[in-house]
Amino acid sequence: MCRIFAGQDPERYELETRRMRLNGQSTSIRLEKSFWGILDEIAANEGISTPAFVSKLHGEVLELHGESKNFTALLRCTCLVYREQPAAAAKAQIAAE
After folding, report:
1. Each residue of 63-88: pLDDT tens digit?
2. Which fold has domain 8-96?
């Protein structure tokens, strides 16, 4: 079973650093390429750039919870929530039928 996970292409988990502005402040964010791909997809679905999406998310987190202790972890979990949503919606639709 672990070969499924261990055998994946190392490029998927290679780290990539992107520079962007979060609410006017210049910063660098370092994530695995797979997570950047999902964030790019989310942003495209929202009709905005990835930096604009990340900045918007940062602003909303500040409003709701104050400064995030680990913003990169929040971004990774955002990707998980995004990927889990279609499955949850499909289960709810099946249950309604």
Report:
1. 999 888 999 999 999 999 999 987 65
2. Ribbon-helix-helix fold (1.10.3990)
